[in-house]
Design brief:
Layout (H helix, E strand, L loop, with lengths): L1 H9 L2 H65 L11 H15 L4 H11 L11 H7 L3 H15 L2
Keywords: Membrane, Transmembrane, Transmembrane helix
């Protein structure tokens, strides 16, 4: 360190001013780069959180619309004098919302195949009557509008 200071002392004043200017500009550039990276990182975190919230709002709105359509369909196809209670719409909403959240992670085709594979029980020869078919389905009310929307939207 002492030798370095002695070497600097031996330089003429113009050279020292030039070296000081170079060091200041390099320090400024390093500061700008660090600030840019930190700004990009913080903005990225903030924007990803905002995007996630926007997706949640969009999923919620779509789930509400699907639930309204499904309830309307249930009311229209319900027999005139039926006293059997309808499935609560909140269950349909939650199912639609869950499916839309999964659509954020999977492709439409993967989601369609998963719904078809894991949530719909296909009738066999032993239970092919209309009553048996309606009883073997796990969740017929929530799947019909969602599956139709997926089919029509993504041409599955």
């Amino acid at each position: 360190m002492y030798n370095f200071l002695t070497d600097l002392n031996a330089l003429n004043p113009e050279t020292l001013k030039f070296l000081a200017t170079v060091v200041k500009s390099i320090a400024s550039l390093i500061g700008i780069v660090i600030t840019a990276f930190l700004g990009k990182f913080l903005a990225g975190v903030w924007l990803s959180a905002r995007d996630r919230q926007d997706k949640e709002v969009e999923w919620r709105n779509h789930a509400i619309e699907l639930t309204k359509l499904d309830l309307d369909r249930k009311i229209k196809i319900r027999p005139e004098g039926s006293t059997k209670p309808l499935r609560p719409s909140i269950l349909d909403f939650l199912a639609n919302y869950r499916d839309l959240q999964e659509l954020g992670e999977k492709s439409p085709k993967e989601l369609y195949l998963k719904i078809e594979r894991s949530r719909i029980i296909k009738p066999t020869a032993a239970n092919s009557s209309p009553e048996a078919i309606s009883q073997t389905r796990k969740t017929p009310a929530k799947l019909a509008p969602l599956l139709e929307a997926l089919k029509s939207t993504f041409r599955l």
